[in-house]
Amino acid sequence: MAVRFLSQEWLDERVRRSAALQPTPDASLVLQHVVTQGPDGVVEFFDELRDGLLVHSGLGRHQDADLTVINSWQDELRLMRGEIDPFNMIADGTIRLEGDQGALFKLLTVIKSQMIAVAIVARGLVDLVDLPVETG
To answer: How far apart are CA 53 and CA 63, in angstroms?
Structure first.
């Protein structure tokens, strides 16, 4: 099964595969993503996390987003492949953040508590994507 990277089908598969992760109490937030410089231009999508679990993800903007993460299509793909560290990306400004910085700590709690499991889910998602020609 091949799906297009950052498509609704891909987002739905993320939700399905993330169900295998363990809950992280009190780690609930809405995360808005803005991915720039992709083959189709800018892609916006959001993630709704409840107790650290991805329960819904959709294309477009979420009116109640706690935090917005902005990065390039290429860096989003490299992040999913595990080629770059999200903490380093935040520290060096590769990923820009807007909104409630406290929400970032909730997100980091989830990532740190389940680093290996999250990485396995992310890399599995990359394996099923049908990638267009990458942009530079």
So the answer is: 20
Interior angle at CA 91, CA 39 and CA 73, nearest 5: 5
Reply yes or no on whether the pLDDT at 124 is more than 50: yes
Domains of the chain, start order: 3-129 (3.30.1050.10)
Torsions phi, psi for 103 (to 5 deg): -65, -30
Stretch 78-91: mean pLDDT: 84
